[in-house]
Amino acid sequence: MTTVTEKHADAHEHGMSDAGYIKIAIILAAITGLEVSTYYVNFGPLFMPALLTMMVVKFVMVVSYFMHLKFDSKIFSFLFYVGLGLAIFVYCMALATFKFFIA
Amino acid sequence: MSTNELTLTPSQSPGLVKSPLSISPSRPLGAVRRPVNTTGWREWLFTVDHKKIGIMYGCVAFTFFIVGGVEALFIRLQLALPDGRILSADKYNQMFTMHATTMIFLFAMPMAAAFANYFLPLQIGARDVAFPRLNALSFWLFVSGGLILNASWFLGGAADGGWFMYAPNSGPVFSPSNGVDFWVLGLQIAGIASLIGSINLIVTVLNMRAPGMTLMKMPVFTWMILVVQFLLVFSLPVITVALVLLMFQRSYGATFFDVSQGADPLLWQHLFWIFGHPEVYVLILPGFGIISEVLPTFSRKPLFGYPFVVFSGASIGLVGFGVWAHHMFASGLGPVSVAVFSMATMAIAIPTGVKIFNWLLTMWGGKIWYTASMKFAIGLVILFTIGGLSGVTHAVAPSDTQQTDTYYIVAHFHYVLFGGMVFGLFSGFYYWWPKVFGKMLNEKLGSWNFWFMVIGMNLTFGPMHILGLQGQPRRMYIWTEARAGEGFFNFGFWNLVSSIGSFVLAVGILFFIINVIKTTRNPERAPLDPWDARTLEWLTTSPPKVHNFDRIPVVHHLDEFFHRKYVEDETTHAMTQIATGEDLMRAEEAAADTGIHMPGPSYWPLLLAIGVAVLGMGIIYGTPIMVVGALVVLFSSFGWVLEPSVPEPIDFDSPSHDGHTKEIAPVG
Amino acid sequence: MADIATHDTDHATDHGHHSSTGLSNNKLAMWLFLGSECLLFGGLISTYMLYRGRVQNGPHSSQIYDIPFTSVSSFVLLMSSLTMVLAVSSAQRKDDAKTNLWLVITALLGATFIGGQVYEFTTFYREGLGFTTSLFGSSFYALTGFHGVHVSVGVIMLLSLMGIIKKGKITGDKAEVVELIGLYWHFVDIVWIIIFTLVYLIPS
């Protein structure tokens, strides 16, 4: 962050082709299908971890590809993920003091 | 200023325009022309200039400082003698609630915003902030929030739940008056103002620095302001959630804090303090930043350990997000939580201590010049350290359990906030007054100002340690002789001392006001570089030109301005002066840029802020008002979007005969 | 946040190329705003998580959630992210017609989602879950309602943007404005990804 970067991000401004976006969308749709299937099929002990993992994967895919964070400057990632990280940290701590994760 | 804003006076822009320009601005919404030909009050109302906005922030914040101060005096009058009759219990509750709220949200934060707005662009060598219109919006929203908060005094009584407004006490059952509703709305709007302001300033620092100014060449004041803005960006949304939940409960019957429905009263406390603790650093770090400029200047030495000061400031900010529950040690969090938060809190003392030692070592061996500004800075170091030490005793959970909700807490946070933050701000007033207004504040009156404040503040808040450890509860509205105790620890004696101290303090503030009036009447101009200063804001006229710098400086050093005046001998490391501020200024003026575009003034920020305020009042006074507010918001948003922030060249007729003035756009 | 117009203090015709980082002011501001929004929705989600099982009156979540229905509306919102990104991509190719087309489709998908939410809320209300019924009710409506307001604001911004592009009155860099609104739109989508899992799929 300390260096002055004069990059003109033309090369990666576009990130992906439209076909690429459609592929991402198909994957997202497939994961959503899988998520919904947990409502009908019993996943047993895998239920929670599977759902949370799929949620995170979808989240990261939209952020990285649709929001271009993967192709854009690291500063944008820094600003966003600091906010996200702090949110996860403070709210999990707060919920932990309510013994939310024990029950 | 001249009658026509487009005329830059010769002193402000040498070699540039002298003749007025004629204007035919475009009409973004087909109805409203952008304000260009402004004079008088319009010059301030529609301005997007960061310097004017900074001054307005300062004036409004200082007004609220007086309001909050008067409220404090009422509190001390009530407690000065047994069986006080100045205030009823109810009015007393309102008084301390509004005192704290006013001082924190309407004085400390906006006063820091005043300094940040004015000096941050100057210190990084920029001509304005990244989003000048958002800057104006943020100011007007703050004014709306402040007015709504204080309007409650006249509309059925102010909020009375303490500045942290614990729910369910602040719910409709226990706080039936509209006071809390005004409080919630006012803070919500002031919060939006701060959020917008912080995004604006972060982008400004990241993106608008002069060539060569890397982050590690930025002045410490700018650094601390940057840390503060990050704290605000990430903590304000949390209080927004809390306020929204409370508003839904009070206005629309939601159940968030309704214990009979199974609600957890600690939810509010968590949300409030997740915001509230970073907020504490939001208040103090600007003061730290100011004295990190003042101490080196008046010690004639560079700041000792610049990177340590910067990184300790940043780590205070980061760790500040992980300690909020130390405000809740007495609430039954459970031993594990208490232990974790207790440790984290003690850890904060480390970076703070690093800063204190850096300041001491900055002064060590320096040729110290005891100006009023320097006195306040030294005052901060000492008083903040006292407050910091009592703070460490709160970090220790067992002792905190004893101190919670006693005057000991009140003593602690007044030492860090008054002794720390307010002294920092006053140090800044004396240091930067000649830069902002082109006149020197009187040093002699400054000295009176300082000594009355420092004595008054210790008389007021020092005894509160004793009162607190003796068990005088915070927020107690009355005490009786029968239960005041005897001897050295007599409540009555120390309460009286404290009350007398508060009036000594008030006299100190009065000296400042007298000083300002006297200085304003004094025709004598300040020298260009009265303090032999170190940073870029001094590389322009006082007050600065509308476009700040004649040419954008190219930065090679930390303390760039100093290094343009002095060269270092390679072997002896002695500094030799090669130029004065006046020399440098002449060089800048000779090489001035032509064709500087400045952002044009705009109606929309003010209108949008009014719309938001009306929209908010609709929550209390009914849907029709809300609809009107929403329409104003919508209309001004469209006006805003359709108006280019920099006036198009077509907005201006060919202005003059000598050709090269054509590109000067209006400012003001 | 389309109201953040491009601004450059040095030269009006040369937008955004003198910045210290080489990045656009507007995009930095938008990402900061989104980082901040994480803490806003985090607070609302946490409140819901804390209170979701606290029902003294009215129905429990398992009695009223209609997972198949919500799955369909979630899918609609997810696909609106695809159409949004295609609009951005068209805008970067300076293809106004296609940009407008994708913007309309995105707005329509968003409006469909909102329609679904209105339907869901009215159904729940009829089944006995009001805003004031229980802690579950209050926190559910606050969270999903806040999200719904965000989507609605997004729809208004999309439609306004289209109008402004059509009239050729846009100030600043057109592709960038589309991208900024796109970022906002995707953010609203990822918040829903979390809500869908934590609120709907995981039973209390």
Brief summary:
Chain A has four helices and no strands.
What does this structure look like?
The complex is a heterotrimer of chains A (103), B (668) and C (204). With 103 residues, chain A is mostly helical. Chain A has two domains: 1-72; 73-103. Helices cover 69% and strands 0% of the residues of chain A. Chain A has helices at 10-13, 18-40, 47-66, 74-97. In chain A, 24% of the residues are buried. Chain B has two domains: 1-44 and 606-668, no CATH class; 49-94 and 104-252 and 263-599, Cytochrome C Oxidase, Chain A, CATH 1.20.210.10. In chain B, helix 8 (306-319) runs antiparallel to helix 9. Chain B is mainly alpha-helical. Chain B has helices spanning 40-45, 50-80, 89-123, 132-151, 179-207, 220-252, 266-299, 306-319, 335-363, 372-395, 397-403, 407-437, 443-469, 491-521, 560-565, 581-590, 604-621, 623-642; strands spanning 566-568, 575-577. Residues 1-24 and 650-668 of chain B have low confidence and may be disordered. Chain B has a two-stranded antiparallel sheet. Residues 1-17 of chain C have low confidence and may be disordered. With 204 residues, chain C is an all-alpha fold. In chain C, 56% of the residues are buried. Chain C has one domain: Cytochrome c oxidase, subunit III, four-helix bundle (Four Helix Bundle (Hemerythrin (Met), subunit A), Up-down Bundle). Chain C has helices at 25-51, 61-64, 67-92, 96-126, 135-166, 174-201. Chain C is 73% helix and 0% strand. At the B-C interface, helix 4, helix 5, helix 6 and helix 18 of B face helix 1 and helix 5 of C.
Number of strands of chain A: 0
Low-confidence stretches of chain C: 1-17
* Name of the CATH homologous superfamily of chain C: Cytochrome c oxidase, subunit III, four-helix bundle
Helix fraction of chain A by DSSP (H/I, runs of at least 4): 55-70%
Structural class of chain C: mainly alpha
- Count, helices of chain C: 6
CA-to-CA gap between the ends of chain A?
43 Å
Topology:
The complex is a heterotrimer of chains A (103), B (668) and C (204).
Chain A: H1 10-13, H2 18-40, H3 47-66, H4 74-97
Helix pairs in contact in A: 2-3
Chain B: H1 40-45, H2 50-80, H3 89-123, H4 132-151, H5 179-207, H6 220-252, H7 266-299, H8 306-319, H9 335-363, H10 372-395, H11 397-403, H12 407-437, H13 443-469, H14 491-521, H15 560-565, E1 566-568, E2 575-577, H16 581-590, H17 604-621, H18 623-642
Antiparallel strand pairs in B: 1-2
Helix pairs in contact in B: 2-3, 2-4, 2-14, 3-4, 3-5, 3-7, 3-12, 4-5, 4-17, 5-6, 5-17, 6-7, 6-8, 7-8, 7-10, 7-12, 8-9, 9-10, 10-12, 10-13, 12-13, 13-14, 17-18
Chain C: H1 25-51, H2 61-64, H3 67-92, H4 96-126, H5 135-166, H6 174-201
